[in-house]
Amino acid sequence: MTESIAERYSRLAQETEDQRAIDVRLRALDVLLAGLFLLLSLPLTIPIAGLVLLTSGRPLFYRGERVGRGGRVFTMLKFRTLRRGAEARLGPYLGPELVERTRAETTVVGVWLRATQLDEIPQLWNVLRGDMSLVGPRPIRPRFFEELATDLPAYWQRLVVRPGLTGFAQVRRGYETSMAEKLAHDLEWIADRSVRLYLRTLTATAWRVLRQSLRF
Fold first, then answer.
1. What whole-number distance in Å separates Cα of residue 119 and Cα of residue 56?
2. In Å, what is the CA distance from 75 to each residue of 82, 111, 130, 186, 198?
3. Per residue in 113-139, pLDDT tens?
4. Longest C-alpha distance within the chain, in Å?
5. What's the pTM?
6. How confident is the model over 14-28, as pLDDT tens digits?
7. Chain Cα centroid distance, residue 13
8. DSSP code per residue over 109-162
9. Which residues of 135-156 are buried (b: 16+ CB within 10 A; e: fewer)?
10. Is 79 helix (H, G, I), strand (E, B) or coil?
11. Which residue, 75, 69, 71, is CA-closest to 23?
């Protein structure tokens, strides 16, 4: 049986997986900080869930399949910010077109949640579970991974680390940067990852979210 592109790159990532001690330290920071952030966010979680329920009904959470470390597919959680059925309508799109169409599908509460990035609070649970890290390449859908791995041969290297709640590419360039540019920043993070760079990325993310919230 011929293996798929994702299966091939998953195997390659597992064969070349970096076992540096830095990964152990970063995982310890993930568990410590994600647990702390979850506790601090509890006073916001119930009101947010109530707002989503009152303004757009169920489901409260978006659950989407994403490719994780070593090619393992996991379910990523977010507070739902789009109209019901938007996932199916947005499925064929990627890049700037996806960004534009997503804006049109965003609910009123979703606009606020996205601007403040409070919709991503549930991903802290993904971090605790080991599906994600606080810092890393942003998780991607399996279908798009197949496409991008075909167009960008180095794309499989993202599988060496856990995908992140925030990423080096996001704090440096933004959401509408080309996939090739984002990949370059992701690979820089993978090659140079350290506790210092991890904390710098978290600090830059916090500052960016604060500025967005003030402008909203």
1. 14
2. 17, 23, 12, 21, 24
3. 888 889 999 999 999 999 999 999 999
4. 54
5. 0.83
6. 554 455 688 899 999
7. 19
8. HHHHHHHHTGGGTTHHHHHHHTS-EEESSPPB-HHHHHHHHHH-GGGGGGGGS-
9. bbbbbbbeebbbebbeebeebb
10. strand
11. 69
